[in-house]
Specification:
Layout lengths: L2 H12 L2 E7 L6 E7 L4 E6 L3 H13 L7 E5 L5 E5 L4 E2 L3 H14 L9 H10 L10 H18 L5 E3 L8 E4 L2 E5 L6 E3 L1 H8 L5 H8 L6 H24 L6 H11 L1
Antiparallel strand pairs: 1-2, 2-3, 3-5, 4-5, 6-8, 7-10, 8-9
Length: about 260
C-alpha cells in the first residue's frame, strides 16, 4: 500500500489528512501513522490477518480487556484496519505486567468448543521441511520426535481465545496503568498456557505465572511452557520465512536452548 492510498482510506474516516508516515513492524504487515488536520492521530494497518485482528479486538473489549479502538475496517483489496492512537507508551513495569496477566485471564474465559488446537499445532511439525536451510536438520529431527507426543497431550485442552504474541512492546501504559494491549493479528483459540509461554520469553516467569494463579515451581507446568515456547518460535520462523524476512537466529537459538 502506498502512502497516498493510506491517506485516501484514512480521510474517509478522519477527514482531511495532514501527514502519513510508514511505521516499521512485522514484515508481513504494512502500518501507517496518520495525522489528521483535526489533530487526531490514528494507525492504519494492512495485511492478511486484518479480519482476525478486528474480531479479536471486538471480543477483548467485550470482556473488559483494554485494546485499541477500531475506527474502520475494510475486507476488500487491500484489507485494512484503522485504529485510534492509544494513550501511553510500551511498558515493562512489573505492575503493568501483572495487570496484563489479569486481562489475559479474562480473555481466556472466551472459549470455542469447536476449535482444533492439535490441528493448529501439528503442521508446525509436519511442515518442517519448509524450513530447510533456516532450521538446522538436527533440531528438526529432534522436534519430529519430541513434539508430537506433547501435541497429543494437549489436544483436548479447552480452547480459549489467545492473543498469540504477547510481550512488553504490546503493553501500553500511562503512570503505571495498562491502557491497551496491541497487535491482535496472531489471535487464535488454544491452550492458555501458550499465551503465558510467549509472555515468559521476555517477562519474568515467576511474576507472570503467580499473577495468573499458577505455581511457577510446578515441573509439569514448566515442561509445558518450554514446549510452547518452542512451538511459538516455530510459528515465528514460518511467518518470517513466508514474508521473506531474515530474523531467524533468535528463534533458532531459543528452540535449541529449550531442547537442551
Amino acid at each position: 500500500m502506498h502512502l497516498t492510498e493510506a491517506s485516501t482510506y484514512a480521510a474517509a474516516v478522519l477527514g482531511p489528512i495532514e501527514s502519513v508516515e510508514a511505521v516499521q513492524g512485522f514484515v508481513g504487515n504494512e502500518t501507517f501513522r496518520i495525522h489528521a488536520a483535526s489533530g487526531a492521530t490514528a494507525y492504519l494497518k494492512s495485511g492478511a490477518a486484518i479480519a482476525t485482528e478486528a474480531r479479536a479486538i471486538e471480543q477483548a473489549h467485550a470482556v473488559g480487556v483494554p485494546a485499541p479502538e477500531i475506527l474502520a475496517t475494510s475486507h476488500g483489496q487491500p484489507p485494512y484496519l484503522i485504529m485510534a492512537e492509544v494513550a501511553g507508551t510500551p511498558s515493562d513495569d512489573p505492575g503493568v505486567l501483572i495487570q496484563a496477566v489479569h486481562a489475559l485471564r479474562r480473555l481466556h474465559e472466551i472459549r470455542d468448543a469447536d476449535a482444533d488446537w492439535a490441528g493448529t499445532l501439528t503442521p508446525l511439525i509436519t511442515d518442517l521441511g519448509k524450513l530447510a536451510g533456516v532450521l538446522p536438520d538436527d533440531l528438526a529431527d529432534r522436534l519430529r520426535v519430541t513434539m508430537p507426543p506433547f501435541i497429543a497431550e494437549v489436544a483436548d485442552v479447552p480452547a480459549s481465545l489467545l492473543h498469540g504474541d504477547l510481550h512488553a512492546r504490546h503493553l501500553y501504559a500511562v503512570d503505571g496503568k495498562l491502557t491497551a494491549i496491541l497487535d491482535w493479528g496472531d489471535a487464535c483459540y488454544g491452550d492458555p498456557l501458550y499465551d503465558l509461554a510467549r509472555l515468559t520469553i521476555t517477562a519474568a516467569p515467576e511474576t507472570v505465572l503467580t499473577a495468573y494463579g499458577l505455581d511457577p515451581r510446578e515441573h509439569v507446568l514448566q515442561r509445558a511452557l518450554s514446549a510452547y515456547r518452542i512451538l511459538w518460535s516455530l510459528t515465528a520462523l514460518y511467518a518470517e520465512h513466508a514474508a521473506d524476512g531474515d530474523w531467524f537466529d533468535p528463534h533458532v537459538r531459543r528452540i535449541a536452548a529449550e531442547l537442551s
